[in-house]
Amino acid sequence: MNGHSGELTMATLAGYGVREIFTLSGGHIFPFLDACVKQELAIYDVRHEQTATFAAEGIAKLCRRPGVAVLTAGPGVTNGVSAMTTAAFNGSPLVVIGGRASQARWGSGSLQELDHVPIVGSIMKSAATVPAAADIPKMVNEAVTTALTPHRGPVFVDVPIDVAFASATADLPAPVVPRGDAPDPSLVDEAARLVQEASRPCLIAGSDVWWDGAWEALGRCVETLRIPCFVNGLGRGCLPADHKLAFSRCRSSLQSADVVVVVGTPLDFRLSFGRFGAARVVHLVDSDASRAGHVPDVVSPAGDLSQILDGMVSAAGRVSAAPASHEEWIASLRELEQARRSADEELLQADTDPIHPARVYGELRHRLERDAVVIGDGGDFVSWAGRLVDSYQPGCWMDPGPYGCLGTGLGYAMAARVAHPGRQVVLMLGDGAAGFSLMDVDSLVRHGLPVVIVVGNNGNWGLEKHPMRRVYGYDVAADLQPECRYDEVVRALGGAGELVRAPSEIGAAIDRGLKSAVPYLVNVVLDPDAVYPRSSNLG
Ligand SMILES: Cc1ncc(C[n+]2csc(CCOP(=O)(O)OP(=O)(O)O)c2C)c(N)n1
Ligand SMILES: [Mg+2]
Question: Which of 270, 355, 397, 442 has its CA 20 to 30 A from that of 38?
Answer without folding.
Answer: 442
